[in-house]
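Example record

The entry below shows one chain as it appears in the dataset: sequence first, then structure tokens.
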Amino acid sequence: MIAVPEQTSQLIPMHEEDLERVIAIETALYEFPWTLGNFRDSLHAGHSGWICTANRELAGYAILMIGWGEAHLLNISIAASWQRKGLGESLLRFLIDLSRERHCERMLLEVRRSNMVARQLYLRNRFVEIGERKGYYPAIQGREDAIVLERLL
């Protein structure tokens, strides 16, 4: 029998020195990724940035904007090699708890209509569809609609 080491993960605040590794994941995952400037501007604006490490490797990240009693999840991503291992759900639940601690009454997010894996994750975590944004995301064939989801906290 081969012993498989147990996965150890950790969530820590994102800092500017993490951004090169974050961008490497972002550009590998998306045809229209956030730029270094998008991440840097988010951190400078005071948004809550988090990275998820697994076995000492950067496995994912998130940017959460908190204000006026609500949280808006701007970006949450898990590196392809770490997907479907529960890290995305753990990171999302952490952000939900963090939003509650900061006295938010609800969390909002947008997700591509075509991203069924993410939509299922959000539904499992009690998000509900409250609207759509036509042509919100850039896409190969023009633009793609976003589904707006909300979770009451």
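Notes for this example: Residues 87-101 form the longest helix (15 residues). The helical segments are 19-29, 36-44, 87-101, 116-124.
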